[in-house]
Design goal:
64 residues
Length: 64
């Protein structure tokens, strides 16, 4: 089912963030969390949302 992104709620974005975190996709989880926080009116709640999925590091570790 195709949904209009304008109809999505902060809760929808958080659900997606949890799914991406479970799938080991931390950067996508972070992006979805940022959008959820942006759609939240209360600054304290938005800060809590951002803290739940912090930005992943951009440094890559090479393994042999």
């Amino acid at each position: 089912m195709t949904r209009d992104p304008a109809d999505l709620t902060a809760s929808d974005y958080l659900d997606g963030a949890r799914e991406m975190a479970s799938a080991n996709r931390p950067f996508l989880a972070h992006l979805l969390t940022e959008e959820a926080a942006r759609r939240t009116a209360d600054p304290a709640t938005a800060a809590g949302i951002r803290a739940s999925f912090p930005a992943p590091t951009t440094a890559r570790e090479e393994t042999d």
